[in-house]
Design a protein that fits this description.
This protein is mostly helical and about 550 residues long. It is built from 28 helices and four strands. One of its GO terms (biological process) is proteolysis involved in protein catabolic process.
Length: about 550
């Protein structure tokens, strides 16, 4: 059967009112919208072939381009590093266990986007992209619980659940189409019978889809659980997270746990999980929260913008009666929340005082001390004290000195390297960024920019974006550094590359063309050799980006 073009919208019913079959096809297009890559040519009815990995990646790129523009999207260097420090070992474990095929490993993005939303949610997207709300980070008690959610979502991708779901929908299409056609024909004689056939056919298709989703949830539980121990996480994190979800499922009715709606918690899933845990592991106590996790959970809660009144409440919490009797992680989390909340309220004195108390409480814990100093640098920068910010950063041990520290190894310290986790050629290590973690690199550059002496960071930033070309934030920093050094042509190219990193090819083309115009006006081609090379790079990148822009426009 040949394929026909499909309209992007639902066809007007007035045009089709005389054809029952045509009306049913139009309704099917509205009920089961096709992804953009499939709108040009429909498969033949009954075609159950999966999406290719390239198609799924392109679909993911389209979705992620919109998420980058969402006002709730947040690129927080500290939280991003912490989340990646949990996620990337899971990816490595999936690869080593054979759960991650080489084709997916190579083609998919393996990127997590954070959103300021206070609801408890995480989700997998096509092409190896993942979304996570700050509300989830703020509510989990341990890094193992957070790892269990990531392992589950990762398994949705490695098991091609999104592709399989679209395939399942394509198989449901003929069933729903047949029910609609028969319903329309029956309605000409008996309207009640026609309506019953329509509803019955749709109900059967929906039930089949729900059953398929439950199967996927159980598979993601099984595969995700198998990743925990090899990735260095306690499997009990799955159990405690399920218990937390089960409790929320019973008492929560305000919509703040959307994760429960997209991942229905059934007694069978809970029973399956408990059956997988060896008795010895089940009897052993689950690891408690690390100081670093307590800080990151507090950071997520504060940055989710709960409101001025809540920030004030958190600023005052350490002064409440009985505070000193609470556990150390609880006190550390409260001090962190108090300091960062005071910063949001622009109360610099309170922010500094709480940070000093935090530093004292975290003394002896390498990962916790590092986070306290990073927060201190953030506070000083916000207060316009670049020198003090650099002093805070100077107190953080170098990456190499933390590499063998158990406290650092349990978290996402600067010693974590993308290359060591994702394999050769896939990322840069801390050594590639001058021994700095990404948060240190960004904060140090920002402080030096304030002092108009950021030139020494140029090489570090260039190395970083070479290994992480999709890091838009660092591209923008590099643009600022080059601009400060009187190299506007390089600055414009860096700005263009930042737009490319966010899939905003139209804006990137504009910046590349601005660079072209600048090169012509300044006569770069006949002058300095470095400027000539830069102009040539801009021309090459402009052609490549224009090609990407055409492809992007064709998908709409």
């Amino acid at each position: 059967m040949g394929s026909t073009p499909v309209s992007r919208g639902c066809p007007a019913t007035g045009v089709l009112r005389h054809s029952a079959v045509a009306w049913a096809i139009a309704a099917l297009q509205c009920v089961l919208p096709l992804p953009g890559w499939a709108q040009g040519a429909l498969p033949t009815l009954g075609d159950g072939s999966d999406m290719t990995t390239s198609q799924e990646r392109r679909l993911g790129d389209r979705i992620i381009r919109e998420l980058y523009r969402d006002p709730d999207y947040i690129d927080d260097a500290v939280l991003n590093e912490y989340v990646l420090g949990i996620f990337l070992p899971l990816v490595k474990a999936a690869r080593e266990r054979g759960e991650l095929p080489p084709e997916l490993d190579e083609r998919f993005a393996w990127e997590i986007l954070l959103g300021r939303d206070r609801t408890v949610n995480a989700f997998a997207l096509p092409g190896g992209y993942f979304g996570m709300h700050l509300g989830l980070i703020g509510v989990v008690s341990t890094r193992d619980e957070l790892a269990s959610v990531m392992a589950h979502e990762l398994s949705h991708v490695t098991q091609r659940h999104i592709s399989r779901l679209i395939t399942q929908q394509s198989r449901q299409g003929p069933l729903m189409l047949g029910a609609m056609v028969l319903g329309m024909l029956a309605a000409t004689k008996n309207p009640s019978a026609g309506q019953a056939m329509l509803v019955g056919g749709q109900a059967l298709a929906v039930q089949n889809q729900l059953n398929f989703s439950r199967d996927m949830e159980r598979e993601a539980d099984r595969v995700g659980y198998g990743l925990m121990a090899p990735a260095g996480f306690a499997p009990q994190g799955f159990v405690s997270m399920f218990d937390k979800l089960q409790q929320a499922n019973r008492i929560n009715d305000n919509g703040s746990w959307p994760y429960l709606r997209s991942h229905p918690l059934t007694t069978q899933r809970i029973a399956d999980l408990h059956a997988r845990i060896p008795p010895a592991v089940a009897r052993s106590p689950a690891p408690g929260p690390t100081l670093e996790h307590a800080m990151m959970a507090a950071r997520a809660r504060v940055l989710s913008r709960p409101g001025v009144d809540v920030w004030r409440q958190w600023v005052n919490e350490p002064q409440a009666g009985g505070f000193g009797t609470q556990s150390l992680p609880r006190r550390v989390g409260a001090w962190y929340a108090a300091s960062l909340s005071a910063l949001q309220l622009q109360d610099m004195a309170a922010a500094r005082a709480a940070q000093r108390s935090l530093l004292e409480a975290a003394r002896g814990d390498a990962a916790g001390t590092r986070q306290a100093h990073l927060l201190g640098a953030e506070i000083e920068l916000a207060g316009g004290q670049a020198d003090a910010a650099l002093e805070q950063l100077a107190l953080i041990p170098a990456a190499d000195s933390q590499a063998g520290d158990p406290a650092s190894a349990s978290g996402s310290g600067a010693a974590l390297t993308l290359e060591s986790v994702t394999g050769p050629g896939r990322g840069a290590s801390a050594a590639a960024s001058g021994g700095l973690g990404r948060p240190e690199m960004i904060l140090r550059t920002q402080a030096l920019l304030r002092q108009t002496r950021a030139a020494p960071m140029t090489g570090t930033l260039q190395t970083w974006v070479t290994n992480h070309p999709r890091d838009a934030s660092v591209w923008y920093l590099l643009a600022a550094v080059w601009q400060q050094q009187g190299q506007p042509l390089r600055a414009v190219r860096a700005e263009a590359e930042a737009h490319v990193a966010r899939y905003d090819y139209a804006a990137a083309v504009d910046r590349f063309k601005a660079g072209q115009d600048m090169a012509r006006k300044t006569g770069s081609r006949g002058g300095d050799a470095a400027e000539y090379i830069e102009a040539s790079i801009i021309e090459t990148r402009l052609r490549a980006t224009e090609s990407l822009l055409k492809e992007q426009a064709a998908e709409r």
